[in-house]
Amino acid sequence: MASWQDGPEYAPQERPAAFVVPPAAPLSDPTPAPVTVPEPPIGEPSFTPPSATQPDLAALVPSAAPGRNPTLPFEVVTATVTNAGGWATTPAPGQAEAGQRPPTQPFNAPGPSLNGYLPVQPTVAPNAQVNPAPFPAPGTPQWFAPPPGSRVPDAPPPVTIGQIWTAATAGVMVPLIIGALFNWFSILMLALSFALSARIVYRHDAVRRSYIGALIVVGVLGMMSMLSVGYSSDLLFQSLSDGSQFACVVLFFVIGLIVGAALRAGERPDRMG
Q1: What are phi and psi of 161, to 5 degrees?
Q2: pLDDT higher for 50 or 248?
């Protein structure tokens, strides 16, 4: 009996009041049929050959005849009577019309002239000279002259002091000048110039390395003065001021040379991050 568990198509139209177990007893499982294995034969199996005469196996192979040797040419059964020119005088039925080569005629037979059918061959120009011209004799004016066709590169445009001053920025060069002239302001001016050197857009890494090297030299000079004489604030300040003043003088020319070299080389300004 189908129930709601078998699918929605077996569900009743109206919900029952309760679900009860059917009074019929469930079916028992079917007993599987016994598997019977045939017993092997007791005696040794024997084979009795046929008593009639059997044909040879080679005679059973189908014959490939009729056939021909593919290395031999085809034989022409019907011969045609040819004249001295090699053309058939009386073409057989089915052959080509007069004036054309019959299919049985070899291809080496003379045919009509081909003049006027082939295009005129173009005139081939002589080969161009491959090897270059010989070198001039040493010591002659041609020996020192540039080779023909070579273009002398244009000289780079001259760089003026105003362009170098603009590229190095006044905020970097003016503190260096003040620090080189006034010893008491050299330490402050060197630090200010180093801080404003970030505005230089040409070879920024080389400019920064120059300032770092100058600061290291100034610090070493201050340490040497303290180790040689002893700690003294006045002596330390004087030593640092002298080193900074000397660094301002050197950096003024070094920064100008670095920026000028970049301008003469036609370099583009560095991208400032």
Answers
A1: -65, -35
A2: 248
What's the DSSP call for residue 197? Answer: G
Q: Give me the residue label for tokens 């491959």.
A: 130
Would you place residue 116 in the very low, low, confident or very high pLDDT band (cuts 50, 70, 90)?
low
Place of tokens 């009795």: 48
- Quote the CA–CA distance of 197 and 166 in Å, as a whole number: 13
Cα 239 to Cα 229: distance, rounded to the nearest angstrom:
12
| pLDDT of amino acid 39 | 85
More confident residue, 264 or 135: 264
What is the DSSP annotation of 163-184? Answer: HHHHHH-HHHHHHHHHHHH-ST
* pTM (2 d.p.): 0.43
3-state secondary structure of 221: helix
Q: Three-state DSSP class for 158?
A: coil
Which of 163, 183, 189, 200 minimizes the C-alpha distance to 239? 183
Whole-angstrom distance between the N-terminal and C-terminal Cα of the chain? 85
